[in-house]
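Subject: sequence -> structure tokens, single chain

Hey, anyone have a minute? Need the predicted structure for the following. Not urgent.
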Amino acid sequence: MTRTGLAMMGVLAVLASGCGGGSDADDAAQPTAQAARGNSLVAQGRHIFRFDTFGDEAKWTDTLRMHEVIAAAVDPTTALSVGLKVDVDALPKSLKNGIAAGTVDLTSPATTLALLELDAVIGLKGRVDKEKGVLKLKRVGITCALCHSTVDNSFAPGIGKRLDGWANRDLNVGAIIALSPALTAAQKAVFNSWGPGMYDPRHNIDGLNKPVVLPPVYGLAGIHKITFTGDGDEIAYWNRYVAVTQMGGLGTFSDPRLPLTVTNGTVDLVSDKLPALQAYQLSLAAPAPPAGSFDAGAAAAGKLVFEGKGQCMSCHTGALFTDANTLLHPPADSVVEPETPSYASRSATKMYRTTPLKGLWQHAPYFHDGSAATLEDVGTAYNDKRGLGLTAQEIADLAQYLKSL
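Reply:
Had a minute. Here:
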């Protein structure tokens, strides 16, 4: 028997002794009908966020043939190395025990298929059939969670409980896409140039290549301009853009400001899901900084810098730390401009939004192009471009304050 066959037998034996599935249990019912309806919408949105492909298998299977690549060459070790994550709550106890004991082969693509059958690979949705006792991946698509969820690594690196809304800065989207046998060498070179945590959501539209960091989608309640360039007035605008133009979902996106109209397929699998998806995203609070992750005394001093000499409050205003609801900024206001190509110039607004700061500790690197590796680098960049005259100590204190938000 082949190594793959042995691996499959081992995985199936482990799975046979336990049951698995997704971890998206419904929220508990609330005492009022209004709260119950709101909870129901959020629960629907959570399922959409985690598991709905909007029919994008048409792109990832029919066009890019990623099901062939995954079935032949993507074992769990490879998947984890490009930043894919595994939901430990989707694994039956027997499989977790097998992984911990080393009896499950993590170097076999057959194990990846077993994980896909369990809906355990975050952001990937596969249709796995069993033929003569062997798992076969028939179709695969992606979900919102691919880029905007990670795990807490509580079981092992890359395997843990879901953290929805967190930017997966480990994810190498470009390297994953470049595995497609349907792409030319030149196309693969572009995708491989992006690197972990980076993605260009305009590349397939305008042909330019300047990726931006994958953003978190938490802490957005009360904020209307939610993208780097503030293109829409609510999350649903960008959800539609991504679902149709990037994921390849079936539906239509149109914005005369770009100008752009894209229609995939003859049915709409996007529009009806946007309200619930948005409700779930707005329910995601920014994560508090881990205990001991910042110096409280330095953070108190940094707050004074933030509110005074650093001039941070001129844009990062109010409880949301952004003026995005009332103002967008010209490219000259960005510390990374001028850049070539300018990301703002490729957008609908041609301007930038002030980024909200809560949960900032989680999603390094910083600025839309990821050019600041640390929050100290952020302070230095502003100090140099704005001529603020901050001392090294003030920049260090400011970084501690930003880590505390």
